[in-house]
Design a protein that fits this description.
Elements: H1 9-21, H2 23-34, E1 43-48, E2 53-58, E3 61-62, H3 64-68, H4 73-76, E4 80-85, E5 94-97, H5 98-114, E6 122-126, H6 131-143, E7 146-149, H7 156-165, E8 170-174, E9 177-179, E10 182-184, H8 186-194, E11 202-206, E12 220-222, H9 223-229, E13 239-240, E14 244-250, E15 258-263, H10 264-278, E16 286-289, H11 296-308, E17 312-316, H12 327-335, E18 339-342, H13 344-351, H14 356-359, E19 368-372, H15 378-388, E20 395-398, E21 432-435, E22 441-442, E23 447-453, E24 463-464, H16 468-476, E25 483-491, E26 497-502, E27 506-509, E28 512-515, H17 516-524, E29 529-539, E30 543-552, H18 561-575, E31 584-587, H19 601-608, H20 625-632
Parallel strand pairs: 4-17, 6-7, 6-8, 7-14, 8-11, 11-12, 16-17, 16-18, 18-19, 19-20, 30-31
Antiparallel strand pairs: 1-2, 3-13, 4-5, 9-10, 14-15, 15-24, 21-22, 21-23, 23-25, 25-26, 27-28, 29-30
The protein binds adenosine-5'-monophosphate-propyl ester.
The site of adenosine-5'-monophosphate-propyl ester (PRX) has 22 residues, from α11, β19, β20, β25 and β26.
Length: about 625
């Protein structure tokens, strides 16, 4: 029995037990069986959560692009690796074979080298969902440069913060991007960001929308002429198992985004192994994940995991609503997609449009459906199951995080019986546990608690770039010897997990992780604002929407409230990005605070959620009178 391909529940339990009893043996077997190494490891695992310090496959030498590309060339050179579906359905799809991908990655890697990038340098990639994005990521990995992909919906300020934090030497961008009927001036955003980034001396520009843009002499270069001249072969850099592969930023509850650092060998092994099992990928299948490569889902399950398995992975540039709400289903029919992986927010938005756009298309190719990024509510789960999967395709509700690198809690399709809203069981090698607020482990079933992981897994982030202390404080200090996820969860009578949501000040809006602090900081930049607090409230499509409580400096200022609301959202768009705009803004005279000056968000959350029958203990409030005032004026 290969533990690489789980097909029955009994097999899952067997594999799982083995993975927990002897984790080192388990992962060693997986690593030996399925990957190419220049040199094998001296030690499978060393770890100490108190530092925290985790190393997998220490001493091993490899290059991840050899595993994702070169090794498929002997048997699968002409198989499609990346199937690119453009924003506009009238533009032709592009099929890139493994052989072509090899050539494109090598050329791009040679360009990077010629432009002065070498092993360990950080390269920021700010591109739309076009093939160059995947190629740029792999080109960095080819030469050992550390990529930092920034989602191309982030504002110039957010981009600058991320570029500076990891001192990127180069930015790879495009003239612009298509997004449904709109175009976005990406290069303009980069130009603005770079006014504040002295570390960047080169910008490579991909031509996508053929718009007129400014090219700064000595800094900006068009990519294509460089590629035309580049050599088609590039020797892979030999990397240590624990060399950083990439940095990816995620929001924190406070201040700066956290640059999560993922390393090479463990990340490769885990993303490849999970991809194969969670999607039950077969060699002839067409797999499509609708995420953007700007997020971890795209890194792990559009690029690295699928390619390490020699899969055909679809990359879609557009949005689900353009030219109409049938676009996803049209693509499924056109490419005969077998595995389809998306987010609950997309499912809810599509469900709202009724069945007509679905029924127009033949979805019979689908075998497995995936969900990721936020809890999937029961209604959305059933809609997905009934109308997309026709009750034939199991839904894998996959729980994981930027920090975990790969899928952690998930059903194995055709093996684990699914249950709406439950991510179900831990993936082999993952040891979840629930804790109460006092730090006691909750050993029984049918309990709710805070979700922690007790034992290391290969793809866990190793640190926060430039701030190991913050890594320790955020994830390893709340509970002794455990990784704290920041999520709450319920474990049912058979041990299935249901993720109930964040227990910190991170709010998930349309599947995007947003920290309250950077949004509040942006609002407070407005000259009329004295203080603000953001909370989430339920939203039919976005899952959560943002509700802002804002204190104005001039409390009598009522004339301009509507204008102020627009200006506040404009500032948020500039500082964080349009995804962080507030749905509701309530101007208030005060915010409920504890005697130590901490805002009591619990109360604000209840008011925003219209759940004010029991506000809980308010006895520690310094200013209880503001609560009634806020309630009286709430939306
Ligand atoms: O709260 C959990 C939620 O998304 C958070 C991680 O967000 P991010 O780092 O952006 O990664 C998203 C893609 C992996 C988690 O802490 N989350 C993710 N997947 C699920 C989920 N909540 C419930 N169910 C899920 N399947």
């Amino acid at each position: 029995m290969s533990n690489y391909h789980i097909k029955h529940l009994e097999e899952y339990y067997q594999v799982y037990r083995k993975s927990v009893r002897a984790p080192e043996n388990f992962w060693e077997e997986v690593a030996e069986e399925h990957f190419l190494w220049y040199k094998k490891w001296d030690n499978v695992l060393s770890w100490d959560f108190t530092k925290p310090d985790v190393k997998w496959f220490e001493g091993a030498k490899l290059n991840i692009t050899v595993n994702c590309i070169d090794r498929h060339l002997t048997t699968n050179a002409d198989k499609t690796a990346i199937l690119f579906e453009p924003n506009d359905p009238n533009e032709e799809a592009e099929s890139i074979t493994y052989k072509q991908l090899h050539e494109r990655v090598c050329k791009f890697a040679n360009v990077l080298k010629h432009q002065g990038i070498s092993k360990g340098d950080r390269v920021c990639i700010y591109l739309p969902m076009i093939p160059e994005l995947a190629v740029a990521v792999l080109a960095c990995a080819r030469i050992g440069a550390v990529h930092s992909v920034v989602f191309a919906g982030f504002s110039s300020t957010a981009l600058a913060t991320r570029i500076n934090d990891s001192a990127c030497k180069m930015v790879i961008t495009s003239d612009g991007s298509y997004r449904g009927a709109k175009t976005i001036d990406l290069k303009g955003i980069v130009d603005e960001a770079l006014e504040d980034c002295s570390c960047v001396d080169r910008v490579l520009v991909v031509k996508r929308i053929h718009s007129k843009i400014q090219m700064k002499e000595g800094r900006d270069v068009w990519l294509q002429p460089l590629l035309d001249k580049a050599d088609t072969d590039c020797k892979p850099e030999i990397m240590d198992a624990e060399d950083p592969l990439f940095i990816l930023y995620t929001s924190g509850s406070t201040g700066m985004p956290k640059g999560m650092v993922h390393t090479t060998a463990g990340y490769m092994v885990y993303t490849a192994y999970t991809f194969k099992n969670v999607f039950q990928y077969k060699p002839e299948d067409i797999y499509w994940c609708t995420a953007d490569i700007g997020w971890i889902t795209g890194h792990s399950y559009i690029v690295y995991g699928p390619l390490a398995n020699g899969a055909t992975t679809v990359m879609f540039e557009g949005v689900p609503s353009y030219p109409d709400y049938g676009r996803f289903w049209q693509i499924v029919e056109k490419h005969k997609v077998n595995q389809f992986y998306t987010a609950p927010t997309a499912i809810r938005a599509l469900a709202k449009e009724g069945l007509e756009p679905v029924e127009k298309y033949d979805l019979s190719s689908l075998k497995v459906l995936g969900s990721v990024g936020e809890p999937i509510n029961e209604e959305a789960w059933h809609w997905y199951n009934d109308n997309i999967g026709k009750k034939q395709s199991p839904i894998v509700d996959t729980w994981w995080q930027t920090e975990t690198g790969g899928i952690m809690i998930t059903p194995i399709p055709f093996a684990t019986p699914t249950k709406p809203t439950y991510a179900t069981l831990p993936f082999p090698g993952i040891q979840p546990t629930l804790m109460d607020e006092e730090g006691n482990e909750l050993k029984n079933n049918q309990v709710s608690g805070r979700l922690c992981i007790k034992f290391p897994w290969p793809s866990m982030a190793r640190t926060i770039w430039g701030n190991h202390q913050r890594y320790k404080d955020t994830y390893f200090s709340t509970y002794e010897n455990k990784y704290f996820t920041g999520d709450g969860a319920f474990r049912d009578e058979v041990g299935y997990y249901r993720i109930t949501g964040r227990v910190d000040d991170v709010i998930i809006v349309s599947g995007h992780n947003l920290g309250t602090a950077p949004i509040e900081d942006a609002i407070n930049e407005h000259p009329a604002v004295a203080e603000s607090a953001i909370v989430g409230f339920p939203h039919d499509i976005k899952g959560n929407a943002l509700y802002g409580y804002v204190i104005l400096k001039d409390v009598g200022e009522t004339r301009r409230h509507d204008n102020l609301r627009k200006e506040i959202n404009q500032i948020i768009t500039e500082h964080v990005g349009p995804i962080a705009k507030l749905d509701k803004i309530q101007f208030t005279k005060g915010l409920p605070k504890t005697r130590s000056g901490k805002i009591m968000r619990r109360i604000l959350r209840k008011i925003a959620c219209k759940d004010t029958s029991n506000l809980g203990d308010t006895s520690t409030l310094l200013n209880p009178e503001v609560v009634k005032d806020i309630m009286d004026n709430a939306f």
